[in-house]
Amino acid sequence: TNYGNHAVMIMNAWASTMTSWGGDPNSALVEIQAYQFACAAELMRNYSGWNPNDFATFQSWIFNQWYGDATYFIHYHDNRCDTYMWQNWDMTCLTAMTAMSILCDNRATYNEAVTFFKSGWGNGNIEEGVVKVHPGYLGQGQEMGRDQGHASLDVVQLSELCQMAQSQGDDLYGFENNRVLTECEYFAYFNLGGGVPPYLAYDGCNGDYQPGISSAGLPAWRVGWDMIYSHYVNGKGVNAPWSANFAALMRPEGGGGDYGTGGGMDQLGFTTLTSYLDPIAPNTPPTGLTAQLRGAGVLLQWWGAPYGTNYNVKRATVSGGPYTTIGNLNSTNLMFFTDTNLVTGTTYYYAISALSSTGESANSAEAKAICLPLPLAYYKFNETSGTNASDNTGNGWTGTLMNGATWTTGHSNNAVN
C-alpha cells in the first residue's frame, strides 16, 4: 500500500504540473520516459488508491504531452531521409506510442505503431532494422557496426514492443518467421563469445558508413532477456540458444540499473518476474524451415527445438515423403544445412526432425525447392582496377569492360559505372 500510494502520488504530480518539455534536440529519446510512465500507469490502472478522475487526468496528460512528438518523429525523422536515424530512435517512439495507446484505449494509434513496425518509413520497420538475415537465422541489427550498447537497446526495445502487442492478441514476435529473434540471436552470439558472425557492410542514408561489426562496448548487458527467452522458447517452442544463455546469466533479473552499459535505466526490467513461462513439453518439432536456392545447392534453415540435441535433415522427391535422411547436425551448430547432391529440373521436399533424450520428434512442416539450371556466368562487378570482370560460377567466362566503362564505389561494395 505504501509503495502503491507513492506511485500514484508521483504520477499525479507529473500529470498536474508538467506542461511541456521544451523541444529537446534528442526529443525522440525522451519518449523512453513516456513508455515507462505508461507501463507504470497500466500496472496501477485498477488500484483502489488511484482516484478514477486522477487516472483520467493522467491518461489525457500522457497522450497530449508525448504522443504528438513520437508520431511526428517516426513519420518525418526531423525532415531527413528514411534511415537517417538509428534503430533505437524509432523503437523508442514506437514503444511509447504502443504503451500510451494501450493505456488510453486508443486502437487507431496502436494500429499506427504496429503498421509502422511492419512496413514503416525508417529503421523501426523490422525489415530495415534487421539489415540482413545470415545463414543460421542470425539477423544483423542496424547498429551492430556502431557499438554494442546501442545494439543491446534495440533488441530489448523490440521485445518490449512485441510483448505489449502480444497482450493485445497481435503476434509481432513471430512476424516474418521470427525476424525479431534473428536480431536477438545475432547480438547475443557476438556478445557472449560465439564468434564474429557474418556482417554486411552497412551504408544508411545518414552517411555513417559501418564497414564491419563493432567491438565497442562489448559485452553489453541490459535487462529484458527473460521476456525474449520465455516467449520464444517456453511459449513457442523455438530454440534460441544464445538468447537463452543471455537470460540465464541475468536471471533472476532486477530492474533498470547500472549493468555496465550506458542507459541502464532505459528498461523497467524484472522480466523474470513478469514474463517467465513454464517450460514447454518435450519432443516439440523444429519450426520455420525454409529452402532457398544458393548457387549449386539448396540452403536449408530452421528454428531448432528447445530439447533438441541433434537434427535429422530429410529429403524426398514427393511431397509428404517417404523421406531419406541426408544429414545430421549437432545442436551446437547454427541451424542451417546446404544440400548439394541435386539433379537439375527436380523438385525436392525437405523436413527436419529433432532428436532428444526422449526420442525423435515429429517432422517439421515441409519446405520445397525446385532445382533450376545453373547460370552460365555470374558477375559481381566488385573489382577495383583493370578491365576484367570475373565470372563467379567458376566456368571461366571472364568479361571485359568496354566503351569507357569504369570501376566505381557502389552501395556497399564496388560497382561498374
β-strand percent reads: 15-25%
Shape category? globular
Low-confidence spans:
none
Order of helices and strands: HHHHHHEEHHHHHEEEEEEEEEEEE
Arithmetic mean of pLDDT: 94
* Spatial gap, N to C terminus: 71 Å
Helical percentage: 25-40%
Largest sheet: 5 strands, antiparallel
Radius of gyration (CA) equals: 24 Å
- Total helices: the number is 11
Structural class: alpha+beta
Q: What is the count of β-strands?
A: 14
Question: Features of this protein?
Answer:
single chain, 417 residues, alpha+beta, five-stranded antiparallel β-sheet, three-stranded antiparallel β-sheet, 11 helices, 14 strands, 37% helix, 16% strand, globular
Task: Explain the overall architecture.
39% of the residues are buried. It is built from 11 helices and 14 strands. It is 37% helix and 16% strand. It has helices spanning 2-17, 27-43, 52-76, 87-103, 107-119, 126-129, 148-167, 175-191, 225-235, 241-250, 271-275; strands spanning 130-134, 138-141, 287-294, 297-303, 310-316, 324-330, 336-339, 347-356, 359-360, 367-370, 388-389, 399-400, 407-409, 414-416. It is of the alpha+beta class and 417 residues long. A hairpin with a 4-residue loop joins β13 (407-409) and β14. The model has no long low-confidence stretch (mean pLDDT 94). Strands 5, 6, 8, 9 and 10 form a 5-stranded antiparallel β-sheet that branches. α2 runs parallel beside α4 (87-103), α7 crosses α9 (225-235) and α9 (225-235) crosses α10.
